[in-house]
């Protein structure tokens, strides 16, 4: 057994309590176990075996002298300054200091006194007044003598008259691992056989087997399949984020083969637009952004490389385990001599660097830990569905993640170089990713610069040697040059001009946000999350509840990111596959099987279909973590293909459609709305990849000014539109785009008046609907045919006769009202016919049918 | 299925801030079991204030030069600070620097105010001046986010969003939270954003700090091309399409809300320009706010807009005093900079206070004035004319809302470096503000990412001492 694992159980065993794991571990006492056990020992439950160590730490049975010190110096001070809020009558933050037990147990922030360790004792932190967030007594600092007494008392081992009567104390912040592991999400998934059901069930797809069984058990039945047009619009938006074209619709309608839909799915999965669509889902989870946000909103000039990496990975159906390992530890993978592969993997580690950072934080140690915290929070929630960040200041309040677990992981990230400088304005790390050609070009260019410099110095020395009298060593160089012949001086000016030009033309090597290993070290527990109060050093490791006996072995000379990533993706981790298949399900159905997609902890929602979730998770791993195979399986299910029709009786029993008796109607995301507007107006630029930002790397989008440099006037797909934190494209923001500063795998869908205002009054919608109108008017067609075309493009279906006649009537009445409004001021731009068509197009794309999928 | 509060809030908010406290409390009363209970219709406490106007002085006005008179500092000009400077400072500073401005006692209370604020000084008996504010972050970005959202590290909802989330709006045709000419730097939208709260409670910006306030508009609220009757005709078509779609899907609260949201949007188009039309006000009012004067016109307009929003039931109005730079940030040029800044805001603020009072609005409006931090009593730069950021002790003042007035609460040390007496942390300020609005800062929570969040995180104490 790795010694670390015994920490908790050793403590409990020593204290005479029950071991979490039911194993006596006294014989396995590690150094660490002793360190943490000390306080228990001190209060009386002294295990004979530990006496020696105890002596070494300077803690002992209280002597009369030391008790006298407590009674004369410490207790009066506690009575005067602390008891009012932390005594018998009132226990603010659940802390009382009128008993030894109270101090050792501690309050919400953890143990208040750790005998022998003033630096780790919150009582000392508080009275020292060094930590802005913990200053006690709140009204006035104790005198220097009093503070020194408190420190001395803790150093003495906190002698206290209660010492012999207090039972074993377990400070707050201990985790019951055995109990914790009972949570469903920490149990390994179990692959149930998909139920077969009765003969009437035609269930080729295991998903349907699970879903239908549950539906039938509740006395509900599924809807019939959706009609082909609806289905095509649904799956095309779902897999590519774009509407189907009239040609695609006709092709599908005329394909009567049994696998017509499967062919469509394969076509869509093979489209480059698939990666653009699903990368955006991942980017929500990766809190992707093209600027830092927070306090110093500087440009992430190379973040786009990471974005393109995600698009490529999805289009290539890169196995998810590889995808994860590359993002956490791509720099540590052996890529041999494959430069391109190496660069790809360096770019992938941008995942760890993309978070928002307070770059002007003056407390550099705090900044470092804040950045690590952001990484832990992101990694925890994105890959494991665990809110690990909650354990920064204290043991997790709900999940079995201890304060020590957190700092075990923190050590991995502290051993990783994320930042190059913490000086204001701090700089994140970027890896150079030059090709051999680019490196060679730079080398040659540098050579040209060197040659030029040499030429200049040679000219100077030649000219110098000809000077008479010879220049003195003390003469200033420019003074000397003034004595050169005019033509030499002119020549030098010209050569220097060339040199400056050369230097200015130095090619910049491409770089990518990313990490490498830094100074390897374990991290100490930060009591209350503060770097000013450090506790035990925790070896780098993963949370115990998930790996009690099989901690990955982390090499002493590496951060441990690679081992961490491999541990996540070894196929046995109870969360990795479950969390990802749930994200995929969420993408297809608008809600996860676990509705809280980023939280599988005790406060998350339990799965609605646990057997199905497990079955999918295991299948995912068995199929080599293929994301496309999972898409295929889901969208080819009857569950996915059923209609969204309302059924009063089903709705009464299951109004939220938790059981999937229909396909839930849902609004398109901001990006899909924008892309669809561009597509339908014929304005969409389908170029893939690359950077469209005009900023330099690390340039301010907002300096200390409010001058807005953000630009969103592109017709590229939405995924390429810059994501400027604190100043998102307002259309995106209105339609519930991710905040881009925190990961979010489950965007809201709000319905608010400003969305309507945008559709009614924005320049973008106006411009695009004019473009639509112009396209329609350019057709040699009558109004009815134009309306038909518009409906087919916008809604994927033809207009009904009633819709055509309503449309025609609107066009004529609107034209009339425009003429009345604009008597005498008609210009070509306000051509009433064109304007009427524009208004009609705008109504069509503003309506619910355009922005909703059914 | 029970529709959860969250789902209701997220999905069916028909417009801005239509989240009544009643539904919030009713849901809390229902508890985890989800069973329906009686519908509470009152706030946590009887509210003293119905709304907030926050006058934000971007950059950090110097408290020793405005509302925190320090005679000892005047005496010890040029001497070294006789105690330690904070562990973390924004930049190095040298010795003590006396205030270049004279202080004078005003009103019945006799509170000393510097000559920078002669007009506000006339209202000093209506002010509750807190001299013992303190925060944690000495940089603009962190401090600004701490002030606006309670956190200088994480993305959290802004205080205006919390208030709107808690109380909703009194005017269904206007947003519940409006921020006039906010700065886009140092947190930018984060400072009025709703973070994980429903989008409907995020602040609606009117212009930004780089624009003159007469150019400030709400985006998309006007249609340049269509007359209202033409647009109504178009909207009728859209709405008939929307109703048609709803028929095909069956009852759906989102789609029903969507139809409502278009009607609200249409009404807002009329309402919003009407509020922003300051020409509707009398010449005397313009004069009261200094709109007739070049120096004060810009901020005067902002203050007058704030009053017009407040009287129309907007819950939280923030008015930012900032130009394209960090207005009050005088690391150097203190004399000129602070004089100019104060001249721009002094008269308009006094005008606002007087106007609110005359109209009876001051009784139930909380006016809050201050910056993200104060400034050091020690000197920065070589010219004996600058002060650094100081979050360790600074001043903000409140007015209205049933507060004790004509008082100074708390104190900094004899030079103004640290808050020492009756200290009020920014978390305490938030707790106190919520209390005045009838909200318990510990109960105004929102479940997100596995836990309940609140404006005051795990801190915050209500400063009961300043309540009348």
From TrEMBL, chain A:
<protein>
    <submittedName>
        <fullName>Secreted protein containing DUF1549</fullName>
    </submittedName>
</protein>
<dbReference type="GO" id="GO:0009055">
    <property type="term" value="F:electron transfer activity"/>
</dbReference>
<keyword id="KW-1133">Transmembrane helix</keyword>
<keyword id="KW-0812">Transmembrane</keyword>
<feature type="region of interest" description="Disordered">
    <location>
        <begin position="460"/>
        <end position="487"/>
    </location>
</feature>
<feature type="compositionally biased region" description="Basic and acidic residues">
    <location>
        <begin position="460"/>
        <end position="486"/>
    </location>
</feature>
<dbReference type="Pfam" id="PF07635">
    <property type="entry name" value="PSCyt1"/>
</dbReference>
<dbReference type="InterPro" id="IPR036909">
    <property type="entry name" value="Cyt_c-like_dom_sf"/>
</dbReference>
<dbReference type="Pfam" id="PF07583">
    <property type="entry name" value="PSCyt2"/>
</dbReference>
<dbReference type="Pfam" id="PF07587">
    <property type="entry name" value="PSD1"/>
</dbReference>
<dbReference type="InterPro" id="IPR011444">
    <property type="entry name" value="DUF1549"/>
</dbReference>
<feature type="domain" description="Cytochrome C Planctomycete-type">
    <location>
        <begin position="82"/>
        <end position="140"/>
    </location>
</feature>
<dbReference type="InterPro" id="IPR011429">
    <property type="entry name" value="Cyt_c_Planctomycete-type"/>
</dbReference>
<dbReference type="GO" id="GO:0020037">
    <property type="term" value="F:heme binding"/>
</dbReference>
<feature type="domain" description="DUF1553">
    <location>
        <begin position="560"/>
        <end position="810"/>
    </location>
</feature>
<keyword id="KW-0472">Membrane</keyword>
<feature type="transmembrane region" description="Helical">
    <location>
        <begin position="28"/>
        <end position="48"/>
    </location>
</feature>
<dbReference type="InterPro" id="IPR022655">
    <property type="entry name" value="DUF1553"/>
</dbReference>
<feature type="domain" description="DUF1549">
    <location>
        <begin position="206"/>
        <end position="417"/>
    </location>
</feature>
């Amino acid at each position: 057994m790795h010694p670390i694992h015994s920490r908790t159980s050793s403590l409990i065993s020593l204290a005479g309590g029950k071991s979490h794991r039911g194993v006596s571990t006294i014989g396995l006492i590690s150094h660490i176990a002793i360190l943490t056990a000390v306080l228990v020992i001190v209060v009386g439950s002294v295990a004979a075996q530990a006496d020696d160590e105890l002596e070494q730490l300077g803690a002992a049975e209280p002597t009369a002298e030391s008790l006298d010190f407590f009674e004369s110096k410490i207790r009066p001070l506690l009575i005067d300054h602390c008891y009012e809020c932390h005594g018998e009558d009132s226990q603010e933050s659940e802390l009382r200091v009128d008993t030894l037990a109270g101090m050792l147990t501690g309050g919400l922030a953890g143990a208040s006194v750790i005998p022998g360790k003033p630096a780790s004792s919150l009582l000392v932190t508080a009275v020292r007044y060094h930590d802005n967030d913990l200053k006690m007594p709140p009204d006035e600092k104790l005198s220097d003598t009093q503070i020194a007494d408190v420190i001395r008392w803790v150093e003495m081992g906190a002698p206290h008259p209660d010492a012999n009567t207090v039972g074993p104390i377990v400070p707050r912040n201990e985790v019951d691992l055995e109990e914790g592991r009972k949570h469903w999400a920490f149990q390994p998934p179990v692959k149930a056989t998909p139920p077969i059901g009765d003969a009437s069930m035609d269930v080729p797809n295991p998903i349907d087997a699970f879903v239908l069984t549950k539906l039938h058990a509740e006395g509900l039945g599924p809807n019939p399949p959706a009609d082909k047009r609806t289905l095509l619009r649904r799956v095309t938006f779902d897999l590519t984020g774009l509407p189907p074209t009239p040609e695609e619709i006709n092709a599908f309608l005329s394909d009567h083969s049994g696998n017509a839909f499967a062919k469509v799915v394969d076509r869509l999965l093979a489209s480059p637009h698939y990666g653009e669509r699903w990368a955006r889902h991942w980017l929500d989870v990766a809190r992707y952004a093209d600027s830092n946000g927070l306090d110093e909103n500087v440009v992430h000039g190379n973040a786009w490389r990471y974005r393109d990496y995600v698009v490529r990975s999805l289009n290539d159906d890169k196995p998810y385990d590889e995808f994860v390992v590359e993002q956490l530890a791509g720099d540590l993978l052996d890529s041999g001599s494959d430069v391109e592969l190496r660069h790809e993997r360096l770019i992938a580690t941008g995942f760890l660097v993309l978070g928002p950072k307070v770059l002007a934080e003056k407390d550099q140690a705090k900044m470092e830990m804040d950045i690590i915290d952001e990484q832990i929070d992101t990694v925890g929630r994105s890959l494991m569905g665990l809110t690990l960040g909650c354990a920064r200041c204290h043991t997790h309040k709900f999940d079995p993640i201890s304060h020590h677990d957190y700092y075990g992981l923190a050590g991995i990230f502290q051993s990783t170089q994320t930042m190059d400088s913490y000086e204001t304005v701090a700089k994140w790390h970027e890896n150079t990713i030059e090709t051999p050609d680019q490196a060679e070009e730079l080398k040659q260019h540098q050579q040209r610069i060197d040659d030029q410099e040499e030429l200049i110095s040679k000219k100077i020395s030649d000219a110098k040697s000809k000077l008479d009298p010879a220049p003195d060593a003390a003469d200033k160089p420019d003074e000397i040059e003034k004595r050169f012949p005019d033509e030499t001086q002119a020549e030098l000016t010209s050569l220097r001009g060339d040199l400056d030009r050369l230097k200015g033309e130095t090619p910049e090597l491409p770089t990518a946000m990313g990490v490498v290993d830094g100074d390897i070290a374990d991290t100490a527990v930060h009591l209350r999350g503060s770097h000013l109060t450090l506790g035990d050093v925790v070896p780098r490791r993963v949370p115990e509840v998930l790996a009690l006996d099989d901690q990955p072995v982390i090499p002493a000379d590496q951060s441990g990111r690679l081992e961490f990533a491999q541990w996540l993706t070894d196929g046995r981790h109870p969360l990795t596959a479950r969390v990802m298949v749930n994200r995929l399900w969420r993408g297809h159905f608008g809600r996860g099987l676990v509705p809280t997609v980023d939280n599988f902890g005790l406060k998350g929602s339990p799965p609605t279909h646990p057997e199905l979730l497990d079955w999918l998770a295991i299948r995912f791993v068995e199929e080599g973590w293929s994301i496309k195979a999972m898409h295929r399986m889901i969208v080819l299910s009857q569950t996915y293909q059923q209609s969204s029709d309302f059924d009063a009786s089903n709705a009464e029993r299951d109004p939220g459609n938790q059981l999937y008796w229909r396909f839930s109607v849902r609004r398109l995301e901001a990006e899909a709305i924008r892309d669809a507007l561009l597509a339908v107006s014929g304005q969409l630029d389908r170029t893939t990849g690359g950077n469209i930002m005009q900023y330099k790397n690390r340039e301010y989008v907002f300096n200390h000014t409010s001058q807005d440099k953000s630009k969103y006037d592109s017709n590229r797909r939405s995924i390429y539109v810059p994501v400027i934190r604190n100043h998102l494209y307002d259309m995106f923001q209105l339609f519930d785009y991710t905040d881009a500063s925190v990961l979010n795998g489950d965007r809201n869908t709000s319905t608010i008046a400003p969305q309507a205002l945008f559709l009614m009054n924005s320049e973008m919608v106006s411009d695009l609907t004019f473009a639509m109108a112009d396209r329609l008017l350019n057709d040699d067609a009558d109004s009815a045919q134009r309306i038909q075309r518009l409906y087919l493009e916008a809604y994927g279906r033809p207009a009904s006769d009633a819709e055509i006649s309503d449309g025609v009537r609107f066009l004529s009445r609107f034209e009339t009202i425009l003429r009345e409004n604009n008597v005498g001021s008609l210009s070509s731009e306000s051509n009433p016919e064109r304007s009427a068509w524009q208004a009609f197009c705008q109504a069509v794309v503003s309506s619910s049918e355009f922005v909703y999928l059914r | 299925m029970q529709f959860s509060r969250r789902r209701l809030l997220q999905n069916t908010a028909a417009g801005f801030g239509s989240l009544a406290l009643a539904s919030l409390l009713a849901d809390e009363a229902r508890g985890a079991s989800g069973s329906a209970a009686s519908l509470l219709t009152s706030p946590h406490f009887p509210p003293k204030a119905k709304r907030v106007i926050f006058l934000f002085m971007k950059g950090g006005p110097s408290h020793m030069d405005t509302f925190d008179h320090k005679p000892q500092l005047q005496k010890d000009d040029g001497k070294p600070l006789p105690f330690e400077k904070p562990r973390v400072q924004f930049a190095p500073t040298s010795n003590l620097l006396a205030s270049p401005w004279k202080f004078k006692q005003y009103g019945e209370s006799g509170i000393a105010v510097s000559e920078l604020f002669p007009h506000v000084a006339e209202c000093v008996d209506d002010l509750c001046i807190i001299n013992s504010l303190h925060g944690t972050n000495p940089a603009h970005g962190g401090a600004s986010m701490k002030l606006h959202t309670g956190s200088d590290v994480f993305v959290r909802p802004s205080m205006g969003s919390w208030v709107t989330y808690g109380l909703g709006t009194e005017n269904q045709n206007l947003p519940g939270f409006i921020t006039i000419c906010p700065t886009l730097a140092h947190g930018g939208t984060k400072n009025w954003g709703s973070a994980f709260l429903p989008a409907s409670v995020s602040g609606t910006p009117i212009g930004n700090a780089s624009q003159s306030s007469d150019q400030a508009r709400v985006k998309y609220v006007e249609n340049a091309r269509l007359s209202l009757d033409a647009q109504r005709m178009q909207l009728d078509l859209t709405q008939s399409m929307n109703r048609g779609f709803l028929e095909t899907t069956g009852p759906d609260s989102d789609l029903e809300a969507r139809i409502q949201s278009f009607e609200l949007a249409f009404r807002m188009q009329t309402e919003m320009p009407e509020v922003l039309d300051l020409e509707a006000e009398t010449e005397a009012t313009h004069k009261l706010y200094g709109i007739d004067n070049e120096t004060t016109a810009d901020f005067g307009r902002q203050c007058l807009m704030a009053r017009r929003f407040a009287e129309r039931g907007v819950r939280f109005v923030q008015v930012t005093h900032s130009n394209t730079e960090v207005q009050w940030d005088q690391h150097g040029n203190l004399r000129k900079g602070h004089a100019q800044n104060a001249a721009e805001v002094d008269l308009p603020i006094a005008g606002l206070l007087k106007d609110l009072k005359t109209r009876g609005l001051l009784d139930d409006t909380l006016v809050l004035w201050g910056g993200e931090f104060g400034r050091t009593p020690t000197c920065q730069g070589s010219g004996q004319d600058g002060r650094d950021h100081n979050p360790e002790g600074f001043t903000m003042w409140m007015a209205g809302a049933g507060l004790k007035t004509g008082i100074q609460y708390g104190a900094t040390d004899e030079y103004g470096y640290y808050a020492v007496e009756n200290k009020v942390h920014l978390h305490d300020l938030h707790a106190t503000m919520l209390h005045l609005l009838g909200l318990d800062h510990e109960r105004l929570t929102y479940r997100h990412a596995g836990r309940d969040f609140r404006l005051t995180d795990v801190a915050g104490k209500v400063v009961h001492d300043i309540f009348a």
